[in-house]
Amino acid sequence: MTNQVIFVICFTFIIHLINTLSYAVRLVGIKTGRLAVSFALFNILVLVSRTANSLQAPLLAKKVEQDLLTGVVANSGAVFHWILLAAAIGTLAGAFLIPSFQGIFAKIVLRFNMERSIPRLLIHGFTKSGIRQIRDQFKVPSPKNLLHLKDFRKMPVKLILLNALVVSILTVGSLASLYAGYLNPQLRGTAISLASVITGMSTIMLVIFIDPFFSLLTDDVLEGKLTPAYYNKCVVLMVISRFAGTCLAQALLVPAAMLIAFIAQII
Q1: Whether this model's pTM surpasses 0.90
Q2: For residues 179 and 76, what is the distance between their CA atoms, to the nearest angstrom?
Q3: Residue 202 and residue 218: Cα distance in Å, rounded?
Q4: 46, 144, 174, 201: which one has the fewest Cβ atoms less than 10 Å from its Cβ?
Q5: Where are the domains of the chain?
């Protein structure tokens, strides 16, 4: 396994870890009453995720180029499956860390309202007091979160399934376009450019169907129409759906790559 692949696996893990933790941001906003500040501070982690995402494709593309130049393309798909496995593991790690992240991030949000400065907030995080506050927030997820997954009248099954599908497409989109380069080396540049089309379409689905629903749930909690506990159950279900999407991406890799190679041929 080359250094490029190791870096891509690490970046993939980070991307899906942060994306999973994003489900906790609204919970922290509800808990602290600082929804806008919560999103603003979490955008710092989003920048880390986007930076990792921007580095992921060039590193993997270089490996594809090297394999095609040397003629070593046997078992090339195994690398992509390892990367998708890292996505699933990153999602699981994020799910496991959500309870701890909620407590830590809530402390960060409240502290920011005192410091009103990112540099001063970072400095406080490295003090004895800051380290102790972060350490005290670590907790193991309760199995009860899985035992109460019932009576989701406001969480349609179709939305859960759609979320899994969207996550699977977003996860596999860029990887499948790169893998298509092995199937049709002459048109690998065209195949790679199709990745933005695929991820763009799935992002549109995410923005139109899933994000507005979660925003409505958040407003209902803030208005007292729903309890934070109910919202927390919804988050658990969406995290499970997200993990299912990363698993589904494993099965979609080869068919998606074949479809992209075909589209690259006919356009």
Answers
A1: no
A2: 8
A3: 23
A4: 144
A5: 3-266
SS3 content of the chain, % helix, strand, coil (to 5): 85, 0, 15
One-letter amino acid at 255 equals P
Distances (CA, A) of 156 to 27, 214, 238: 20, 12, 11
Q: Which residue has the tokens 């790169």?
A: 178
* Whole-angstrom Cα Rg for the chain: 20
d(Cα 145, Cα 141) in Å, to the nearest integer? Answer: 8
pLDDT in tens, the chain (267 residues): 677 888 889 999 999 999 999 888 888 888 888 888 888 888 888 888 888 888 888 888 888 787 777 776 666 778 889 999 999 999 999 999 988 888 888 888 888 888 778 888 888 777 887 788 778 778 777 666 655 555 555 566 788 888 899 999 989 988 888 888 888 888 878 888 888 888 888 888 888 888 888 888 888 888 888 788 778 888 888 899 999 999 999 999 989 888 888 888 887
**Residues 6 or more apart in contact with residue 11 via CB below 8 angstroms:** 52, 53, 55, 56, 59
Taking the C-alpha atoms of residue 8 and residue 84, their distance in angstroms, rounded to an integer, is 10
